[in-house]
Amino acid sequence: QVQLVESGGGLVQPGGSLRLSCAASGFTFSNYAMVWYRQAPGKERELVATISSSGSTNYADSVKGRFTISRDNTKNTVNLQMNSLKPEDTAVYYCNAFRSIWGKAYNYWGQGTQVTVSS
């Protein structure tokens, strides 16, 4: 079955760094765009970063220059390197796999990992 398992979350001080990882299984990883979302308490889920199947990346304005998304198709993993963390980055971070083909969308989600930025 399809699984997306996030890891790497935790508590970090402002200005610190964390590296999130998402291990995928049960589908052809290289065919999917991979996306990191986050949801802070009381707020809607927001897109953080995307990486296409070909490796093109996009970022939310709020994280540009601080976060880097990458993927390893040999290991079926996607990572999110987060630097210069701010308290407003505190959220549950979710890994998403997405593909649209022949008018049908395939969308898979991980269970989320908590990131807390606080002194």
Can you tell me about this structure?
With 119 residues, the chain is mainly beta. It is 0% helix and 55% strand. The chain is built from no helices and 11 strands. The chain has strands at residues 3-7, 10-12, 18-25, 33-39, 46-51, 57-59, 67-72, 77-82, 91-101, 104-109, 113-117. Strand 7 (67-72) and strand 8 (77-82) form a beta hairpin. The chain starts with a strand and ends with a strand.
Give a quick summary of the entry:
The chain has 119 residues and is an all-beta fold. The chain is built from no helices and eleven strands.
Query: How do the helices and strands follow one another from N- to C-terminus?
Result: EEEEEEEEEEE
Largest sheet report: 7 strands, mixed
What is the mean predicted local confidence, pLDDT?
97
- How helix-rich are the residues, as a percent range? under 10%
Strand content: over 45%
> What class, by secondary structure content?
mainly beta
Q: Which shape, going by the Cα principal axes?
A: globular
Distance between the termini: 40 Å
The total of helices stands at 0
Low-confidence stretches: none
Output the radius of gyration. 14 Å
Number of strands: 11
Give me some keywords for this one.
119 residues, 4-stranded antiparallel sheet, mainly beta
How would you summarize the topology of this molecule?
Blueprint: E1 3-7, E2 10-12, E3 18-25, E4 33-39, E5 46-51, E6 57-59, E7 67-72, E8 77-82, E9 91-101, E10 104-109, E11 113-117
Parallel strand pairs: 2-11
Antiparallel strand pairs: 1-3, 3-8, 4-5, 4-9, 5-6, 7-8, 9-10, 9-11
